[in-house]
Amino acid sequence: MTATTGAAQSAQPERPGRKDGVCSEFTVFTRIKPGHADALREDLAALADATADDEARAALRQIGTLHDARHVIFDNDTRFMFASVFDGSWDTYIDDFAKTVVGARFDKVFSHTEGFPGVADPGVKDWFVSQQEPAGVFVSSYPDLTVQQIWKDQRVDKAFQEVLDTPEFRTALDSPANAELLATPAFQKLLEEAAA
Q1: Which of 61, 72, 110, 188 makes an SS bond possible with 116, Cβ 3.0 to 4.6 Å?
Q2: CB 138 within 8 A of CB 83
């Protein structure tokens, strides 16, 4: 696990959840209102469909800190879990979701759970804290990469792969004028990584 060092003190109280590098985990366990499991299941199916739409994807890009999220109904339809991994502060993460279309969709899903005040309610953070349980262990495969960095890496990789596929690049590789550059360990490593 990576320890956070040199971080400025937050004006907010410390929030539950473990960190690994820039990534934090958020896991909430709630009670489903009696008789609401089927409606929750329907709203989760609608959420899954909506997550694929352009508006939801644009909202997730606008938020720009969510690595992944899961919703699970368990204990014979009596309990509900939401778990996610995100970058940045816990408070900013909750605030950012409330400002987008995702907040309205969360309101609909969490309305089936006991005591949920609504994502725009000033007490929603206290409610989440009261339902949150930190992971016993949390490990990220890429603890030093934010969502923004991963998206940038994907864009750079796509552009680089497009360059590699051009006839002009292949011709440049074969040119004796570039032999010295091509022989450098750094360039060889780049080509090896690109071929992997």
Answers
A1: 110
A2: no
Q: How far apart are the first and last CA of the chain?
A: 28
pLDDT at 149: 95
Helices 54-63 & 37-51 angle (0-180, nearest 10): 80
Average pLDDT, stretch 114-124?
Answer: 94
- Three-state SS at 19: strand
3-state SS, residue 75: coil
Helices and strands (DSSP H and E) totals, the chain: 9, 4
The more confident residue out of 6 and 66 is 66
Instruction: Name 188's Cβ contacts closer than 8 Å, sequence gap at least 6.
Output: 182
> Across the strands, what pairs with 20?
23
177 vs 173: CA distance, rounded Å: 9
φ/ψ of 186, rounded to 5, equals -65, -45
- 14 vs 27 pLDDT, higher one: 27
- Strand, coil or helix: 26: strand
Confidence of residue 150 (pLDDT cuts 50, 70, 90): very high
Work out the angle between the directed axes of helices 90-98 and 54-63 (0-180°, nearest 10).
Answer: 150
Q: Does the structure show a pLDDT above 50 at 126?
A: yes
Taking the CA atoms of residue 104, residue 105, residue 110 and residue 112 in that order, the dihedral angle to the nearest 10 degrees is: 110
Arithmetic mean of pLDDT, 8-22: 71
